[in-house]
# Entry
Amino acid sequence: MEHGVDATAVAVVAACLLLWGLVSARLERFDVSAPIAFVVMGLVVSHGPTAVIDVKLQSETVRTMAELTLALVLFADASRVNVRALRADAAIPARLLVIGLPLTIAAGTGVAAALLGGTDWWLAASIGAIVAPTDAALGATIMQDPRVPSAVRRCLTVESGLNDGIATPFVNLFLAGAISAEAVHSSTTIASAAVDLVGGAGIGVGVGIVGAIAARAAARAGWSAPGSRAFATLALALLAYATALAAGTNGFVAAFAAGLGFGAVASRDPEGLHLDLTEGLGTLLSLLVWFAFGALMLVPGLRAAGWQDVVFALAALTVVRMVPVWLALLGSGLDRSTVAFVGWFGPRGLASVVFGLLAVDSLDPPEQRVVLGAVTVTVGLSVLLHGVTAGPFTRRYAAIAERLGKGVPEHTSADLPPVRALRGRSPR
# Structure
């Protein structure tokens, strides 16, 4: 009997998950993070003499999995934001999101236009927006290390939790512009993309708020069993995403807006958010996305890349990120070592991979290669460089921060939002 599922691929992925589960603590002692491990495993089992699976870059299954992963992550991250708990120093992450992120996208656009020859401004802007969001899960060593001041960890966590959702409209608008530039008669236009974004936000907010009110009412009335409430939260994330897609609007924006709406209503009872299942599934799917990155994107991306992509990636991880951070934090009172630390630890991760897959699927082959090369090199270098520098840079910065004394912004006390972790143990 024939099966629609590739049993070999399922067995290989399951074996990789099992292997990581057995040896994760040992590998992490050598700063081998989960993303590094799964990228390498995906590469090994799909290329060269050890290849046992063959998956295409345009695989509909992989794209669907990646999109669902980002939707769950956007919902969970947005749900965790408690403005009242962050009131003590909300200005610092707000500076990074309101000032730093747009400047990063603008700087990335300029560098992409200058380096990637023949790239029009719409495509350059798409690349700049795709590689702008950061991923706290790739910096779990930092986020979970108590030696790093809680205000700094909180700043990085909130920034990375929200900037992928904020970057989503920019990515969609710029991709719409690039597609329209390729084909004048394309049905995707900047105006229609803007309508999709507004519609997605409206659907998401509605689903999140109504769902949270219904969940609270059912819990108070004793209609819902405690063990089943996590399923309701997971269903809200998927409902917002799928409803937006069915309505022809943006699912990612809907998932993000639903998380904000849900969190706003449920924030008075943080323990009642019931995000464990949503975050757990998101974490599992994140590992699979990193596996897919190694299996599908890495080799084609490197083949499509040239020296210009390497220069762009190095710029994206340094000046394109660090200068906007420095400008955004002027007058914040943070020590220059803190500004440098925050600027460096802006790893590019899940959102950039998913946005890259969407761009490759939407654009014509010449533009596909440009985006694939730039995004693959940037994300690959980020996984490597941020992974290997997390431990030593954290130890050095922690020693500096300890000498800053009390009363500085770095040591402002407030509750620290949880970070979506891809590590299997506590920090050393």
Q: What stands out?
A: The radius of gyration is 21 Å. The chain is about 70% helix and 0% strand. The chain has one domain: 7-411.
